[in-house]
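QUALITY CONTROL LOG
STEP: pairwise intake check
CHECKER ROLE: data steward
CRITERIA: each record must contain a sequence immediately followed by its C-alpha cells, with no blank fields

ENTRY 1 OF 2
RESULT FIELD BELOW
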Amino acid sequence: MKGITVQELADDKEYGLELEVISGSRGTLKKVYNPRIQKLGLVIAGYMVYLHPHRVQILGYTEISYLRELKPEDGEKIVKELCSRDVACFIVTRNLKVPDYLLTETEAKGIALLRTRLVSSVFIERITRFLEEKLAPTGMVHGVLMEIMGVGVLIIGRSGIGKSENALDLVMRGHRLVSDDIIEVKKIGALELTGEAPEMIRNLLEIRGIGIVNIRQLFGISAVRHRKKIELVVELLDWDNNIEYERVGLREDKYRLLGIDLPLIRIPISPGRNASAIVELACRNHALKKEGIDTARELEKKILNTTERGRE
C-alpha cells in the first residue's frame, strides 16, 4: 500500500503547508496511508469513540483553548488516551502555544507533533490536496499527453505510428506538451485522472531521425505544461480498408484507465491525412460536447424529425 512519511509532510514546499516538528521527532518516520484528516473536535472533549485511527489529527484554536480551560490533570488524561491510539501525527494550527503535557506525552510515545502558522480552514484545504495527490492510485501509460484547446488529450497507438511527430506538429500549432513516451497517471478522487511526465524526461520529445529535443528550450515555457487533467483519449491506427470507420460520430467508445472510463476517438492514419489537424479537431469537438453541443446528435434529431414529418 502506498504511503508517505510524516517527514515528507514536514519537508513540503510545493503545497505551502509550512510545518515544523515541535515534539516526537521519532514519529516522523511513521507513514500516512489515509488521505482523509480529522479535526479532533468532540474527541478532545473525551469522546474517544469518534476518533478515526491512522489519520492526521488537527488541533485548532477550539481544541487548544478547550485543553487550556481544563485542569492540568484532566487535560493530561485526555492527551494520554489520545496518544495511546493509532494516530499518524498531530498538527497544531495558527502557531498556537501547546500545553506542556502534550509536548511531553508525544515525545514519550514517539508521535510526531507539528505546528503551522496557517489557520485551520486554509491548512485543511492544503493538506487534503497534498494527501489526495500523494496517495492517489497511480499507473504508467505509453503515449503522448498534450493540452489542446484546454483539453487534456492522451494520444496512444503502436510504437512508430507517429505519436511524437504529431505532438511536435501540435506544439508548432500553439498547443502544449505534457509528456512524451511515458505518462505518470494519478487518480484524483472518484472521477478525475491527471497525467505528468517523469522527472527525467520532462519537456523532452523523441523524433526519429533527429533524436531527443527539449521542447521548452526550443519553443519556450508556453509550449509545455507540468501536469494536466486527462479528458480525452485519441488512438492512432494504421488504415485498414477492411474496416468501416466511424463517419457520423454517434458511436461513443471508452478507454478504461485506473477504473475510469474516458471518451475514446480512433483515428486511422494513411499517407496524405493530416493526423495532427484531426486530433486538434477532436479536441475542439470534445470541448463543444462539454458545452452541450453535439453536432452528430443534432443531425440525427433533424433526420428523425424529417422522417416523422414525411410519414404524416
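ENTRY 2 OF 2
RESULT FIELD BELOW
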Amino acid sequence: SVPWEFPKVCPSCGEHLQRSQGDANTYCVNRHCPARIETGISHFASRNALDIEGLGERTVQLLVEERLVEDAGDLFALTKQQLLEVLVSDSSNETLVTNLLTAIDQARECPLSNLLIGLGVEHLGPSTAELLARRFGNIEAISLAEITDIAAIDGIGPVIAKSVKDFFGDDHHRAVVEKLRNNGVRLDLVQGEVNAPQILVGRSVVVTGSLEGWFVTREEAKQAIIARGGKSPGSVSKSTYALVVGTEAGETKLNTASDLGVPILGEAELRDLLETGQVF
C-alpha cells in the first residue's frame, strides 16, 4: 500500500498550506480561498458569536459561490432580491429570506464581545473578549490600544495581547471592520458597566443562590465583579476572596467557604464590595 502523506496544498483553492512554528494546525493562508471564506462567515454567524439564525453552512456556501459575500462585512449589505434569487426556487415562498434578513438586522445590535469572537481574533475566547470589551468600550479603542495596555488587563496575557494587536494591524481585517461600520453594525455595544473602577483585580468572587429582590440580579452581580477586574468562577477554592450568597444557595459552596474561612456576603456586603473592593 502507498503510505499516506499529509496534503501540501489546499483542496479547495490549490494554494500551498502552511504551519507556523509551534502550531499543531496547518492552514490555508489564501484569503480568497472559498472554503476559508465559508468557514469564517459560518463562525461569524455561529451561536457563540453573532448567532444569526438561518445562516447555516449550506446558505453560506451558496452566497460565496454566487460571489455575494467575500467576508462577514458583506452580510449586512445583502438585499431581499439577492437572497430570493439564490435561496428560493419558488419566488412565492419568501418566508426563508424574510426570516434571514430579520436575523441579520438583529445582529447589528450584538454585544461587542460577541463581535470580537465572530471576527476570529486568534486565542481570544468568550471571557477574554468580555474583558477586552469592558476595558476599552468600543472596537476603535481596542484597535488603537498598545500591547502593554491590553496585556495589563487581568486575565489577558502577552500572547492574547499580541494577537489582538496583530489582528487590528492587518489591512484586510480593518477593511472588514469598516464594512461592518458602514453597514450599520454597532461596534460599541457593551452590556453592563464600562470603565468601572478596577478595584477587584486579582480577586475571585463566587455568586451562588437566587438574588431575587436584591439591587442586582445574579448575572448582573457577576458582570459587575468582572467589570471591576475580578473573576466570578462557579466554585469556591482557597483563592476565593468572597462568596456572595442569595436564597436557595448550594450547601457545598457554603460548607467549602466555611471550611476555608472565605467571607460570606449578603446584599449589603455585596454593595460595599462593588463600591470599595473590600470586605469589611
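INTAKE CHECK: passed for both entries
DESCRIPTIVE NOTE, ENTRY 2: The CA atoms of residues 18 and 27 lie 5 Å apart.
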